[in-house]
Structures are given as C-alpha cells and as structure tokens.
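Data card: per-record layout.
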Amino acid sequence: MRRTKAVSALSLVAAGTLLLSACSGGDSGSGSTDQNGSSTDVKSMAVGKAETGDSFKLADVKGWDGTVTVGIDDGYSGYNNNTPDTNSSYNTYILTAVLEDSFVLDGNNKVLLNADMFDSIDVTSKDPQVVTYKIKPNIKWSDNAAFDCHDLYLNWLSQSGQAKGSDGKNPFNAASTTGYDKIKTATCKDNLTFETDYSEPYLDYKGLFSGVSILPAHILEKNTGIADITKLAPTGDPAQLSKAGDFWTNKWKGFDKALMPASGPYMIDAFDANQKAVTLVKNPNWAGGKGGPAKIIVRAMEDTKAMATALQNGEIDVAASTQPDATAAQTMKSLSAQGVTYGSAAQLTYEHLDLQFNRMFKDDALRKAFFESVDRKAITDKLLKEVQADASPLNSIVFFQGEEGYTDLYGSKAGLGADAAAKTLTDAGWAKGADGIFAKNGQRASFKITHNQNARRSQTVEIIISQAKAAGIEVKDETDANFLKGGRVSTGDYDIALFGWSSAPFKSQSRSIYVCPNNGGDQNYQNLCDPKIDEAFTAAVKATDEQSKLQNYQAADKAIADKYATMPLFQTPSMWAFKGIDRVYMQSYNGVLWNAGEWEQKK
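The structure for this 603-residue chain is written out next.
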C-alpha cells in the first residue's frame, strides 16, 4: 500500500476491470473528447507498445537526446519506499522507472509478467503453495553488479516479519509484511532461480516482489560486511540481522548515488532536496528497450493550479496530478491548440477520513454523529465535477464503484443531516452548551481534521466545518505540510486524518490498514481493533477460491463500516496533460513514468 501524499498515498485495492478497457494502438488523431474532456485516444495509451498476452516489456523504440520535465504533486524522500516514513506514491512515481518489479501493471491495471527481467514466475506446487521465479540471465544493476536471486531474497527477508535482531525485535522497519509473512521459507536454488514456499495458500502472490521493493542486495552486503545475504535466515545470527536491518531501514533514505543503483531503464543522477527535484538519466546496463528521453527531471509542485500554469508556460512537459482540481483541469483542457493532450481516469486510490480511536473517538456516538453530519455529495459536487463529470461519494472501503463485491455501506450512515447527528449525541448523554457545541463529562465535541498542504483538502475541511457546526460539532482545520512524511500520520498523532490510500490491484494489501495493530496491522495508524474485521481479512487472505475470498472481503468491508471508523469520501480521479511526447498514460499506482522507456518524441 502506498500513502498518497498529496492525496496521501498508500492505498487500497481494486480489480483491473474497474478502469478503462483499452485496446492497443497509438494516437487516433481524433479531436473529440469524452465526458471529462479527455482526448478519445488517451484510452489506447493505457497499453504498453510491446505488451502481449500476460507479459510486458518495454518496446525498443527510438530514444532522443533531450530532457523531459515532469510535474507531480509531492517530492521524493527515499530510495527504499517500504518503511513507514518513506512509503508514498510520490516515491513510487519516480522509482517505477528506476527499480524493476516481478510483475508490471499497465494503464488498465492488468497484472503482467515483467518479461524484461524474468523468464517465468509460476506456481510450481499448489499444496503446499510454491512459487518459483526464473530470472533472466545477464541482467545487471547500473553499477554493473548482477541482478540475481540475492535481491529477491533480501526483499523477502526484510518484509517477512520474522527476523529478530540483537534486542529481540525485528530490525527491518517494514511498512507492511502482508503476503511476505505467508512465505515459510525462501530459497535460492541457484543465482537465477528463487523459490518461495508458503505456509498457507495466498492467491495474491503476484503482488509480492513488486511495488519497487526489490533493492540491491550487493550494496547491503558490501556495506554491512555480510558475505552472502541468502545465508542469513530470519532465525539466524541476531547481530548480523541487526546490521542488515539497520542498513535496509536507514541507509536508503534520501539519495546517495553510491548506494542507490538502478535495475530499470533510468537511474537517479541527482536529487535537489531544496528544489524538490529528481534528475533521471539512462541506465547504461538496461537490457530492455532503449526509447525515452536522455534525461527526465521530476519536480514536486504541490499547487496543482501552478502545475497547470507551468505546462501552459512551457516550464514542464508533463503535468501528472493525483490531486484533482477544477481550475487546473480547465487550464489543461484549454491547451489543445498548443499541442497538449489532456487525460483523466479513475485511480485505485480513495480519499478518506480516519478517526483516531486512541483519542475522543473512542466514543461510539461521537463517531456516528460525525458521520451523520457530513454530506459527502456536497464535497464531490463542488470539488470533482470538472475533473470527473459523474463523480459521486464512495460507499465502500475495500471495493470501488462498478467492481464485483461493491455494496453501498455508507449511504445509510453518512450525510443524514444535522438533526440526526444532534439526536444521536443527545440520546447518548451529550448536551449542547451555551456556545452551541455538544459536550459530555467536560469534553466538548471539538476536534481537528489534519492533512498535508493541499488546497483541495483545505476546501474539503471548510465544507465539513460548516456541516458539522449545524449539528453542534466543532471541527477545526489543521494543515501540516509534513503530516504524511514527518511521522505524525504513522504514529497516530491526529484526531481525524484526511488523506488517501493507493494500491496495486490486490485486496490483501488493505489488510494491514484495518486489522488490529498487534495482529499485523502495520499501517493501522488509527488504532482500530475489532475481531470481526480481523477474522474476515484472515479468511479472505488465506482463501483458496475466488468466491470465498470475495465473500470474506465483503464481510471485512461491512465490519469496518459498522465501526464508523473510516469515512470514504470518493475514488480519486487522476488528471494529466503532456506535449512533445507521442503518448503518456497515468497508471493508477505507478504514475506516468511506468513506461517512460518507450516514450517517443513527437515532432
């Protein structure tokens, strides 16, 4: 899961059938647009140029000696994107061109074998489940070291949840261990053959060894004195595990060129923390297609309107935002005469409000009343219609609209009005004070909604403040630019957190957000804990057939809703625009650079 920083970024789970079902091909040349103002040819850009069947590789097209500048919503913070303080979509949006995965997602969220790196990935036994990875020969990191089984082994060791260091604790501070914790043993049969033996069935195995999580084992070995990481078992030497865990957790933050080689078509050449800009250049050892520009500069532009203006002024070539903004969308749509193509599509990301159970929201009635006071349709109508014409509130946490399993669980809980909210509080012993705000046992119904620096989020809270006040609830807006990357959200330091979750299309990835913190809830920052939720997720993750899996995820979805724990606002649409490139599609989980190595210059 990725926490979307400007929406926030980590996040949920949905099937590839939800998004556009694209056909292959290039620009259609049509000037017509869909209901959102996207050019009709944008749909065809969701498929890789050399994509065939269930395999993906970068097409070998003509590159060019130029620079493309890309604007995204927030900045880079770490090469290892799998610790709680770095785990962000905005790192993924850059690292997707730098670090290779076992499986690739195209623009339709179709899960494809990475044929540039792997000959095969197969379930070689069903009972017990064994998955075998065959790495292509002669694949190298950008520093000329072999990309091999050691790298996959480190990926498992670091996220297995099984390691114990010198202090008896896990030295690898992984944001989530879901899925990896089902692997009983991992073995390098040889340098190019990696075998994972599962303790129980895990249908979502394709979501593992992906998400820019395969890091260079040879760098860790060299800098820790560990001769061979594959000889270090989770139950092995605690001192060695502590060394490995400390390096993995702490030494791959920020940017250090000597420690951070690339396995993908591009490598990081420079990082300007002040300017929030990352410079990517071609990886000389990349074995796949040779297309794309010689240099890509990725700039963080937190103001989406300014991003659109920068595209208009020629300061950037690609504007790629997960933060839908009506004014910015209007600007980008108006630039077609300048050769700009605009696109918008639903993402596997949802905007939501998380209520903190360790604070005043222990009170069931207060949670329920807050839900009843918030009219989510007013939020989507005001903030999203220009970007997505048919935008409406999301009424599920585990499923997206139009997806099998989706049920409206929140239409009867949220937006019932001020009178309903006031009655809920009154019936529970709350009394309205002289200031018009309910209170109980000396505690006023007053709290903050905290979010990062984001204009749309500020507007969201502004709407909620007015709605809640009518119900006798005081809501305050707290903007913290570092809320999603400074530790506050991951330590639960909030009353209500407003952000977004984004994920690859594997529902098991949402488990770590909602099960009890002491039961694998590594990303459960709101301290929600309910046995019904845990039981349903456990049954879903270990299910051996799709129907059982679906039913148990539905049960988990309902249990979360019944706790009035998380209020889904909407499925977040992306919007992007570009010029000077033949085709760009903003992939829901990986951003626009997922296939930058096959971009061609548009004359």
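Known properties of this structure: Confidence is low (pLDDT under 50) at residues 3-32. The CA atoms of residues 69 and 580 lie 11 Å apart.

See the next section for split statistics.
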